[in-house]
Amino acid sequence: MRQIFYLVFINLVNLFYNLGLFIVEVGLFSSYIWWWKMRVLLFLSYLSDGPYLLVRKEGRRAPVLPQNLIYGETSCLTIKKILQEAEVKPSDRFVDLGCGRGLTVIFVNQFFHIPTIGVDIIPTFIRRAEILAKNLGLTKVRFIKENLSWVTMEQIGDGTIFYLTGTTFEDDLLVKITSRLELLPVGVQLITVSEKLDSTLFQLKKVKSFYFSWGKAEVFFHEKIG
Ligand SMILES: C[S@@+](CC[C@H](N)C(=O)[O-])C[C@H]1O[C@@H](n2cnc3c(N)ncnc32)[C@H](O)[C@@H]1O
User: Fold this and answer.
1) Binding-site residues, ligand 1, Cβ < 6 A
2) Secondary structure class of 65 (helix, strand, coil)
3) Taking a C-beta distance cutoff of 8 angstroms, is the pair 103, 118 a contact?
4) How far apart are CA 208 and CA 220, in angstroms?
5) Interatomic CA distance for residues 193 and 41, integer angstroms
6) Ligand 1 test: best mutation among 122, 162, 174, most atoms within 8 Å of CB?
7) From the CA of 97, how far away is ligand 1's center (Å)?
8) Residue nearest to atom 5 of ligand 1 (CA)
9) Considering the entire predicted model, what is its pTM?
10) Tell me: the pLDDT tens digits for 78-95?
């Protein structure tokens, strides 16, 4: 019984926390028509099955451990602050490695006016994100269904700012992703959440804390130096 109360309590806290984040987001972005369209279309496309349910359904067929697929989302407010901290330029191209529903990919394209790419292993995330981008009339947004362990330079090599929310990723997956990222040119930026990238080819520039759907987490800003 105590456990049930505890679970209900945790879920309520989480609900109010995310509601708070959303209210701040409304205050900041509600003057943008594209933001309303993006939010409404995203809401409608996941009305019958939310991202958590989808991951549970499709994750079983994905060739990765379930711990890598634990879902969480970066709010528009947080990705805006993170990219401002990264001093995004008009010539940048943003890549979300494990993009989920594609919220950051679409938001960054619309808010910062730069081309964006999202990669994810869950087929329905990618299919719905492509439909969403098409319905919003976006031409400089690309989604790729791929395992990050095998992602190629042809797919992501023209990115300049890479974003990795690998909070729950197993070590083996992180090692494989690192070996892909080490093929990128010198000067690209890599932003990781919760953990620093373990590679001598990337220099850690700064660490800051931001709010995510799962709570406050540290964000690591790196630059490729070798
Ligand atoms: C925590 S979610 C982050 C979503 C998004 N980046 C954001 O910040 O809103 C992590 C995503 O990584 C994806 N993922 C996990 N392992 C993957 C892999 N091996 N290849 C591609 N995507 C993967 C999951 O499907 C999930 O959508």
Assistant:
1) 64, 68-69, 71-74, 96, 98-100, 103-104, 119-122, 125, 147-149, 165, 173
2) coil
3) no
4) 7
5) 27
6) 122
7) 7
8) 99
9) 0.94
10) 999 999 999 999 999 999
Ligand 1 centre and the CA of 126: distance in Å?
Answer: 11
Quick one: which atom of ligand 1 is closest to the CA of 147?
A: 20
Q: Tokens in use for 223?
A: 């630059």
β-bridge partners, 164 = 97, 192
| Ligand 1 atom with least separation from CA of 55 | 25
Query: Could you list the residue range(s) of the whole structural domain that residue 74 is in?
Result: 2-224
Residue type, 214: W
C-alpha–C-alpha distance, residues 174 and 48, integer Å: 32
User: 5 CA to middle of ligand 1, Å?
Assistant: 31
C-alpha 107 chain-centroid distance: 11
Tokens for 124, please give them: 């329905």
> What total of structural domains would you count in the chain?
1
Which structure tokens are listed for 125? 């995330």
Percent of the chain with pLDDT over 70: 100
Q: Is 61 helix (H, G, I), strand (E, B) or coil?
A: coil
pLDDT tens figures, 100-147: 999 999 999 999 999 999 999 999 999 999 999 999 999 999 999 999
Residue 101 CA: distances (Å) to CA of 7, 35, 87, 96, 144: 26, 15, 25, 11, 12
CATH number at residue 115: 3.40.50.150
